[in-house]
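note to self — DONT lose this again. spent like an hour looking for the file last time. sequence + predicted structure for the chain T wanted, 228 res
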Amino acid sequence: MTVRYELDGAVALLTIDRPPVNAYDPALERALQGAWHRAADDAAAKVVVLRAEGTHFSAGADRSSMAGERRALQAAEESPGAAMALVRNLPKPTIAAVQGACIGGAQRFVFPCDLIFCAEDAFFSDPLITMGYGGIPAPLHVWMYGPRVAKEMVFSGMRVPAGRMLQMGTVNRIYPREELRDATLAFAHEVAGMGAAALARAKAEVNRALDLMGQGDVAPRFDELLNH
């Protein structure tokens, strides 16, 4: 089982667990999509937390190449854009908890979550330019990192540490690695104590404002670029 689904009170906990570095393959892609659909349909889940076991959140595609990325996505039941849109528009608050590396396509698992909490050692990178591919993740990165840092990343494949992302307002909180899981769950339970209808409305209104700024175009554009 590469993705576990657990219910901790009113918090659904989705845990990626594919040793040694949580690289994703077609099976994990399908399992994660299924877990998100389950969380969406679970009336007992008011908040959803995405996390991963091990040293790293995810080292990206199982094979460090676009061929491996495309194989994983073609075997999935829905496109990466559709998967991102599902999470982004889920009428429940979502939180990603990231430790260690979050590389390449693994960033699209984190990007659509409402909040991102990180361990002190977390970092993000996209090495596609070093493999001769350019532009595919750019729409996503502009929103995650801002245009200047996005260009640094897509031009060089550099790492962006969680500390820098906190300064930019891209991630919400940073904790020592050993505290990340418990601190994230504690906040998730606090949010779960709010009214479900009010939470759904609040999220919808934030997303509506972001749509007016163009964020809603990210998911379909990602699919277009991946298929060219």
